[in-house]
Amino acid sequence: MVNRLAQSQSLYLRKHSENPIDWWPWCDEALETARSENKPIFLSIGYSSCHWCTVMEGEAFSDRAIAQYMNSHFIPIKVDREERPDIDSIYMQTLQMMTGQGGWPLNVFLTPDERIPFYGGTYFPVEPRYGRPGFLEVLQAIRRFYDTEKGKVEAFKAEILENLQQSAALSAGTAELNREIFQKGWELNTGIIAGSNPGPSFPMMPYAELALRGTRFNFDSKYDSKQVCTQRGLDLALGGIYDHVAGGFHRYTVDATWTVPHFEKMLYDNGQIVEYLANLWSAGIQEPAFESAIARTVEWLKREMTATAGYFYAAQDADSFNTSEEVEPEEGAFYVWTYSELEQLLTDEELTEIKAQFTVSRAGNFEGKNVLQRHQPGKLSATVETALAKLFAVRYGGNPDTVKTFPPARNNQEAKNESWPGRIPAVTDTKMIAAWNSLMISGLARAAAVFGNLDYLELAVNAANFILDNQWQNGRFQRLNYDGQSAVAAQSEDYALFVKALLDLHQASLTLGNGEEAKQLPNSQFWLEKAVQVQDEFDEFLWSVELGGYYNAAKDVSGDLLVRERSYIDNATPAANGIAIASLVRLALLGQNLEYLDRAEQALQAFSSIVRDAPQACPSLLSAIDWYQHSTLIRTSPDLISGLISQYYPTAVCQIEVDLPEGVVGLVCECLTCKEPAKSQEMLLAEILQSQTRG
Question: Does pLDDT of 651 surpass 80?
């Protein structure tokens, strides 16, 4: 017997389709049923590759006693946070207000009339354990509280709603966004990257990206920003967070030493990390492990994460089956190695070198097995590469040179029932998410420009063209695509990150678009025109005329939300408004349309108090301030442009100028003023550097 979620396009929702709980998707009918029956809503939010979401689905949500009580006393609603980040953002914020912390699965109880939460938590076990009550006890207590403590429920509702509305509106921005504000914010955010803590290790790319920007200034700081940024790159490229056998980065490590990952691979992490490592290289930090990690990650992307239509899949699960007879998948099974396996697979010389280069032992570092983590940077030896290729063959059933595509397992049944040539792979969530694809397009475009790699650019172009060709319905941008069917109105992060991706393609195409091999690719002007078109739609439907900045969702598709938020806090992905403001500055530089600059200034002012008072929450807004304060347009000839774009000038954009005055090699402008025409490369570089660091 299946429930309503069986017809959902979302892999996460379908995973709950055989639960005895009478789940609803988030829809008007479900909300109206809660109102008419006066039943509290149990809202559960998660995503397909979330380990603890999977655990709760197999435990509490599959328990018949819990389901019987839930179905009688609540209206249970399931939401995929990757489909509706606007809903997730609001209720995650309320959970943090109530408990001081958050996470997924996100489980909150809402009043049936106004959908305001009055209790919440994350993982609930079936029986009391981990210091948490059993889920049936929670349900009974919540329903008793709702029925008998109406006054307390009303008071709690009022407090939560007031706090939400205040948070969404923000206070009027009055802070002056000067160099001091930027430097203070940079210092605090660099400290977050530089610091050590005993808990899990996350990539935190918006923070690392901001820290890297500071390397070009001579700030009086307690941090050596170049060292801090290099170390973050090494943690990523050498750590267990990186899949050294087959490429791609896991979500995070559960420890402070970057050793044992939470094994899911998310597209959004990989796009940001590829861009960051390419930027490190372009900034002169040319560690071979960075180039290798980018190259292998792109191979993983092509092999396992790219649809035949050109777009990129969303994620791969942490858990997989060791055998087709197993009932439940095991975390990390696809990725880890017993010592006896390594002894059987490798020659004595290979095993000796692997042990010298990686964290390998008989005891292992993860439940008796080994997660590979490199000890030292540098280029791996031929012996180690041969050993890694043997491990690859065990996983995939062939050598890296021959296994160019590896079909996804779209659910547990496919994973167990297919005849795989190697290990049973983790399930892949094959939906297309515009925002996440955009992050990967940006990473590929930047790596293409830095390394002069046309293959990277072609991969990015194919994904961007898919979005342009398939993600508009009735003139409106759509966030998702399920096997060729677009769905769900685009949100601010989709618009902001896609505009950025188009502008990044514009710059990369200036570098690689002139060769014979690149003639089939769109030219740079094409990408700029598309960026302007998408930005115009973004401005029309999501810009806040009253407050400044961009709402998370358009007014005509957000009637089911408690409040209309404007994303400015960075999480695993950068906040939409920080990215959007930076793109407005770039568009002003490239198109000389000062309306973009006015809008950027208005948005920055709207968030200025947050930047002043809580800069550690919003590194992307600080990066946008950097763009605003140090925006630089470089106009030069085709033969010089590649060398400039491949360098690290984080607030500069380039344009090809074919009609330079005689004797002039380039022109440098600072949005509203231009410098003296440069008559030598040395003069041009000096002017760029001065513009990039001006006070």
Answer: yes
Collapse the DSSP code of 454 into the 3-class scheme (helix H, G, I; strand E, B; otherwise coil) and give the result: helix
Q: CA 189 → CA 194, 250, 613, 614, distances in Å? A: 9, 23, 13, 10
**Sheet holding 265-266: strands in order across?**
265-266, 315-316, 428-429
* Pairwise CA distance, residues 324 & 328, whole Å: 10
* Rounded (5°) CA angle 436-438-441: 115
pLDDT at 515: 58
Any residues with CB less than 8 A from the CB of 639 and at least 6 apart, and which?
none
- The C-alpha atoms of residue 422 and residue 409 are separated, in whole angstroms, by 13
d(CA 262, CA 259): 10
Instruction: Please give the Cα distance from 693 to 270 (Å, whole number).
Output: 30
Query: What pLDDT digit, counting tens, does each position of 566-614 carry?
Result: 999 999 999 999 999 999 999 999 987 899 999 999 999 999 999 999 9
- Across the range 449-453, mean pLDDT stands at 96
pLDDT tens digits, 332-386: 999 999 999 999 999 999 999 999 999 999 999 999 999 999 999 999 999 999 9
Percent of the chain whose pLDDT exceeds 90? 84
> Can you read off the two tokens belonging to residue 611?
């930047």
CA 579 vs CA 407, 471, 500: distances in Å: 33, 21, 7
| 8 A C-beta contact, residue 497 and residue 580 | no
At what angle are helices 454-470 and 434-451 packed, to 10 degrees?
150
Separation of alpha carbons 653 and 655, rounded Å: 7
Phi, psi of 260 (to 5 degrees): -100, 115
Give the model confidence (pLDDT) of 222-239 as tens digits. Answer: 999 999 999 999 999 999
Which residue, chain included where needed, has tokens 């689905």? 57
Q: Which ranges constitute the DSSP H helices of 283-338?
A: 288-304
Residue 585 parent element (H or E):
helix 576-591
- Count other Cβ atoms within 10 Å, centred on residue 368: 11
Report how far apart the first and last C-alpha atoms of the chain are (Å, whole number).
Answer: 67
CA neighbor of 45 nearest in space, from 100, 108, 138: 108
681 by DSSP, 3-state: which? Answer: helix
Q: Are 672 and 678 in contact (CB under 8 A)?
A: no
Q: Return d(Cα 587, Cα 408) in angstroms, integer.
A: 38
Which residues neighbour 227 within 8 Å (Cβ) at sequence distance 6 or greater? none
Burial of 116 per CB tally in 10 Å (0-12, 13-18, 19+) = buried
